[in-house]
Amino acid sequence: MANGVFHTGYGITINLNLPDLGHPDHPGLLDEILQPVDERDRDLLECLDHHAGRVCRSEHADKSPWMFVSARRKHGRLVLVASHLPVTHKATPEESARHRAMKERIARCAEQHGLSAQDDDAESPDDELTFTGEAIDPTCRYGEETRTRSDPRTRRDRPDATGLCTFGQVPASLFARPRTSPTLNITAAQRQAAADQFRCPTWEIGPCSRCGAPIHRYGDRSVHACNPCRAALLSR
Predict the structure, then answer these.
(1) On the CB side of 79, how many CA atoms lie within 13 Å of its CA?
(2) Which of 8, 30, 82, 164 pairs as cysteine with 67 (C-beta 3.0–4.6 A)?
(3) Gap between the terminal Cα atoms of the chain
């Protein structure tokens, strides 16, 4: 957003911080610059940086160096600001007619419900414009308003604070070999002996989850660890 624009029709610089826009000899200037874009020349208002021959920030994005003026609330006050128009075609008469018809339908619907509708998306009619009297900032500020934050939370508490982290050195723990479950490496005779000991079928014999000794691991009344390992865990 900017606080000044160049009027290509009159060849003058407009200061949006002054009640007379810096040109008391043009009493109807405010109404003129507040016209909808489809009812005036699209290139009527120009970015000051672009007019001075400097690189306008909007040229690096999907915006044009041409501007429109609107009333916006800034720091609790209603002020005039200039914003860049998108790079797009000028509205055709048919499109303009459809737009006006839509606004008229909205106004009629509002009146039927006891409300009033404005022709444009303005602030409350009870609000008054504030003119700070500040000098024009000739530097294009396109894109800076998108970095303004009003969220009271600290940045680490907001969702946009999350992301990937880059470490200068990979922690050694990431290279640690993961612990694998013990396997049972016994002969068929040893498996049969274990089955006889625990009084269960041979297919229910498996390794202790800690030391790998053969135990009644599967089926009814099975356990996950042998007696010595369970005793060691309980003694901790």
Answers:
(1) 19
(2) 82
(3) 67
How far, in Å, CA of 225 to CA of 214, rounded? 9
Helix/strand/coil for 211: coil
Q: Give the C-alpha separation, 90 to 44, whole Å.
A: 13
What are phi and psi for residue 190, nearest 5 degrees? -65, -35
User: Is 67 in a helix, a strand, or coil?
Assistant: strand
CA distances from 183 to 44, 180, 208, 214, 230 (A): 82, 9, 9, 9, 18
Percent with pLDDT over 90 in the chain: 18
Q: How confident is the model at residue 124 (pLDDT cuts 50, 70, 90)?
A: very low
- With tokens 């624009």, the residue in question is 5
Rounded Cα gap, residues 125 and 123, in angstroms: 6
| HEC secondary structure over 158-184 | CHHHCCCCCCCCCCHHHHCCCCCCCCC
Q: Which two tokens stand for residue 157?
A: 């508490």
